[in-house]
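Posting here for the record, re: iron/sulfur cluster.
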Amino acid sequence: MSDILVYDGSFDGFLTVVFEVFESKLQQPKIEPAYRASATFFSETREIQTDFIKSKRVWDGIIKKGNSNIKRIIYKSFLSEKVGVENILLDYICKFFADNTAVFGNFTDPSVLKLSKIVKSVEREKHRMDAFIRFKLTKDNIYFATIEPDFNVLPLISKHFEDRYADQQWIIYDLKRNKGLYYNLNIVENITLELKPEALKTKGTDVLFTQEELAYEELWKNYFKSTNIESRKNMVLHVKHMPKRYWKYLSEKQL
Amino acid sequence: MNFERIKEKLNILADAAKYDVSCSSSGSKRANKDKGLGDSSGMGICHTYTEDGRCVSLLKILLTNHCIFDCAYCVTRKSNDIKRAAFKVQEVVDLTINFYRRNYIEGLFLSSGIFKNADYTMERLVAVAKKLRLEENFNGYIHLKSIPGASDELMREAGLYADRLSVNIEIPSVKGLKLLAPDKNRADFIKPMEKVKNEIIQYKAEKKIIKNTPIYAPAGQSTQMIIGATNETDAEIMYTSASFYKNFNLKRVYYSGYVPISYDSRLPSIGTEVPMMRENRLYQTDWLLRFYGFDIRELLNKDTPNLDMDIDPKLSWALRNLNLFPIDINKADKHMLARIPGLGMKSVNKIINARRFRKLNWEHLKAIGAAVNRAKYFMTCDSRVYETRDLTAAQIKGLILSNSSSKYRKTLNNQLNLFDTVKPLSV
Ligand code: SF4
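Prediction output follows.
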């Protein structure tokens, strides 16, 4: 009979679990976030309360022993929300604490290799958001965008947009996870919107956006068409760079 | 803003600018200043891709497509019967800012036909950049075209506001240029390039002494050559390219397969295929020179004046130098690893990292993402199973190409599918 440890889905929650595993010397427990926890008949479920002191101790330990790359791997692969990623991470962290030189760049270790792939896809998704987010100016002068990323990349894109759009208010809203970032000209805040996000998707007859907004969108679509060279058309390449599931963000791909 | 009128101009002037393939927005170090708009300190971002699969990073337009010149290879040439338009300086500024704020673009790439004379044109381009920087506190990316023949003073000013400057030499050889653009000469292209190069050198020297020296063209210079409009060999093209890299410290040379746009008998006729595979091979060669430590003379020379179209230049080189292989990937230095067909720089670095822990075998290589199917003819690793047959270059090439999952054949097929006439390919 093996244990299932359930945590609240947050990064601190996960680190608390790691702390508990070390503290109570648990053998191979299964770790699951509460939003996915599955009770099974043969295993015992234990809920782990997030404890910021414990999580900080683990994180500080990692920072002390590792380098920025280890931090990057652990945090970003966690954000992938992939099923089972917690257990790969646990294995990785155990090996790392046992011998911190044993993991870095050691692609012959399955956990190291798996995480490096996961990190790569999380980073790719982050870059796609940097690229494919399209702001629309609302009547109250906020540049507004919605996203539905495969992974929880909101925390990763915040700084990029803050650095870039320092003189305009903006909101980036993750419809899938129902949370967003709001930059109020000073700082970026985490927000949850009351109104149905679906309402924001409608276009054309919008009450939210200015008339000018639609005109700029139109100009952009025109530009997109004019800059294409018909005799070089290559839809295979086009779709490879911009997989269809991202088209919903892109005004230039709407008819 | 009169959107209808702007739309019309945008269509004409974006259409005329699209043959310039550069759309890079990387390599600058301009960070956001005083809570202004924009930041170009990161890597460049492609915000969208055209249906021809090219990255769209910048708003790429001409200020005007009026031109006093008549270069045969250019849609904007004086004698061409097309609609003409011109943006006002403020219109370009407004478009750039509004596109940027919506996260459509990384910045502006502004080029122009030459109206009146070189300086008059260059002055207007500089005016746009200056306005963006000083009035709008815009820190996005700006790429300005250096107009051939523009004065040193203007080029100096241009670099103070632009991240990148470029002048397209377009035709790889002097004789080709004479044929297609008789009223232009190489010296006019060289002049602004030389000036910008010297300013960059001077900036770097001064910067060491005086911290707040105003930055000058932080993303450097680039140029473009049209491929297939004139009949240069690949060797001629790449030697020109290598000399430009060397003499002007260029960041990039772009190769643009000629898109037929004219019935002029000096040029390939309309309907001729765009030489995209050749363009691709030239880029690969360029890459090998800049990142893989190859010397141009190894890849192209008297005996090999043209690149193979059916295999990439690294594989061609390896097949001509089989005596250097196989290479033991657990021992070879980075320089040699980079020369194994099937290993990209990423795989090379991973191999170097991973082999510190243990000797690597085929499984490890596959896990790392190396193209073992190709690499196996050129390497050994910690395994007893390896290619023991004494194969000739032609045999290896045949085996690699006949491998149905081969990337080569796939790209080549895609390549040909681009054109309406699908040709069967026998390799
Ligand atoms: S000067 Fe430039 S824009 Fe004018 S015709 Fe020649 S290449 Fe075209």
